[in-house]
């Protein structure tokens, strides 16, 4: 999606996902988020966002702080979807690279629409008796011309025994 304001300025929709250090206090976390939002709002418009939440990481991430490498196995993850022109996105990238409390970030081009996956509700029809009915394709369906007759328990046991022996 592109919006053209002037002849040479084209705004595109981007999303930045970021990981912030886990030992941050609530005040410091709020400062970092405010900094990121301020950078975006200085030359763009925020479309939507998710507040950072502490999450476990799939693997250790190493960040160099004060000349030492430190490992982190959890971090605050948040994202912001915004509208901005391409040169301003490069400035945002440079600003985020310089932040000590930002472990990693990723900026992608996206669309304005909501792209979050919401689990679908499953529907299971009920019969008049209130019992659940689950249909599996090909199971319980009659073939044309086939007439079903009830089978006795003896015949059923005999058939099972034959199948087990084979």
TrEMBL record:
InterPro entries: Ribosomal_bS6 (IPR000529), Ribosomal_bS6_sf (IPR035980), Transl_elong_EF1B/ribsomal_bS6 (IPR014717). GO terms for cellular component: ribosome. One of its GO terms (molecular function) is structural constituent of ribosome. One of its GO terms (biological process) is translation. Pfam families: Ribosomal_S6 (PF01250). Belongs to the bacterial ribosomal protein bS6 family. This is Small ribosomal subunit protein bS6.
């Amino acid at each position: 999606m592109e919006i053209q304001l002037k002849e040479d300025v084209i705004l595109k929709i981007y999303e930045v996902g970021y990981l912030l250090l886990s030992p941050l206090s609530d005040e410091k976390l709020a400062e970092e988020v405010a900094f990121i939002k301020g950078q975006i709002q200085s030359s763009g418009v925020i479309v939507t966002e998710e507040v950072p939440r502490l999450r476990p990481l799939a693997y250790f991430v190493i960040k160099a702080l004060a000349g030492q490498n430190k490992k982190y196995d959890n971090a605050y993850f948040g994202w912001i979807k915004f509208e901005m022109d391409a040169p301003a996105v490069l400035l945002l990238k440079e600003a985020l690279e310089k932040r000590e409390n930002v472990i990693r970030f990723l900026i992608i081009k996206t669309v304005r629409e909501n792209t979050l996956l919401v689990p679908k509700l499953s529907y299971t029809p009920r019969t008049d008796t209130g019992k659940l009915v689950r249909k599996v394709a090909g199971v319980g369906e009659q073939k044309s011309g086939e007439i079903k007759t009830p089978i006795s328990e003896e015949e059923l046991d005999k058939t099972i025994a034959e199948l087990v022996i084979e």
